[in-house]
Amino acid sequence: MEFGLSQEQRLFQDSIWRFLEQHSSLERVRRAADANDTAPKELWDGLCAMGVPGLLIPEEFGGMGLGLLDASIAYEMMGRHVTPAPFVGTGVMAPLALMHAGSPAQKEQWLPKLAAGKTRAGVGISETIGARESAGVDARGGKLSGKALFVIDQAGADIFIVADRNRALHIIRADAAGLTTRALNTIDKTRSVGELVFEGVAAEPLPGAGEQAIARMHDAGRVMLAADTLGAGQMMIDKAVAYAGERKQFGRVIGSFQAVKHMCAEMAAKLEPCRSLIWYAAHAFDEGLADARVAACHAKSHLSEVGRFVARTSTEVHGGMGFTDLLGLHYWFKRIGFDRQILGGPEQVRLEAARLQGWAA
Fold first, then answer.
1. Which three-class secondary structure string do you get for the chain?
2. Which residue among 116, 133, 161 closes a domain?
3. 159-215, pLDDT tens digit by residue?
4. Residue 133: which domain range?
5. Are residues 249 and 337 in the same domain?
């Protein structure tokens, strides 16, 4: 059996590619990063017009009703173009939280707005992956107290979906009394993470099984980050090959040197098999297969390692130019570095996979 994309999925991939080629050029990304704008209006409006925020949301709520495999196709293209857009939180993790743990009224209220891009959502569940000193959220009497760190898509969010210490999920409005938000600086200026401090903040609990919803959010978010790394890594390879075909030393293009050929070939050999790994992880998620969680962990951890190798090697092929702002290679380099750590670094995610398979305590 051949596992690949359908004709409709390839057409969708091509349409995303063409749009981002025009609206997420390196110069546009540079301007957005310099202005700390992680969702340029023209770019976000265009993605909304294409239905990207509603990819996973059922058609009855105004979404496209597609699967995580389709979302991974879109996010691979965003990684290739280092697109500044709030997709992981707003387009994937927040809808899944509502779909799996929200009440009918909550779904009716929020999913159509998320699908249309009229509402953006930040997601604060990093404390469910690993405890952090001084961080954690307590829920009592319908109000939240404490702190949530590394909230994905924090900037510009209208609502936040946050997990408390008991792994229950809550909706908090961005303008709620007692809520303090602060942007956190990371190496990646194309995406936003932040800190939320709660001082008796009114919250609306999601009544469904929080544990199950959080697990699905983890899996989907990790597959999306792996797809993003795949796209960013592929673009770094493309740029390295193009540069090697132009740059001359000793009267010859450097791409004719055996060492440079080997560097480019090794990058391609390591990255290409990752595409099938991501596609399978997304397919397993969509079909509810028994190994879906393990596949998501493998995709995230393996792409974290391969992505770092590609980022380093591509920069080396560019020589001293690779470290300059002129080429802009650092945007992909930093994007891959961010993907590596958010929602669990590779060591932590591999340990989780080992536990799921009964290989570790």
1. CCCCCCHHHHHHHHHHHHHHHHHCCHHHHHHHHHCCCCCCHHHHHHHHHCCHHHCCCCHHHCCCCCCHHHHHHHHHHHHHCCCCCCCHHHHHHHHHHHHHHCCHHHHHHHHHHHHHCCCCEEEECHHHCCCCCCCEEEEECCEEEEEEEEEECCCCCCEEEEECCCCCEEEEECCCCCEEEEECCCCCCCCCEEEEEEEEEECEECCCCHHHHHHHHHHHHHHHHHHHHHHHHHHHHHHHHHHHCCCEECCEEHHHCHHHHHHHHHHHHHHHHHHHHHHHHHHHHHHCCCCHHHHHHHHHHHHHHHHHHHHHHHHHHCHHHHHCCCCCHHHHHHHHHHHHHCCCCHHHHHHHHHHHCCCCC
2. 116
3. 999 999 999 999 999 999 999 999 999 999 999 999 999 999 999 999 998 899 999
4. 121-208
5. yes
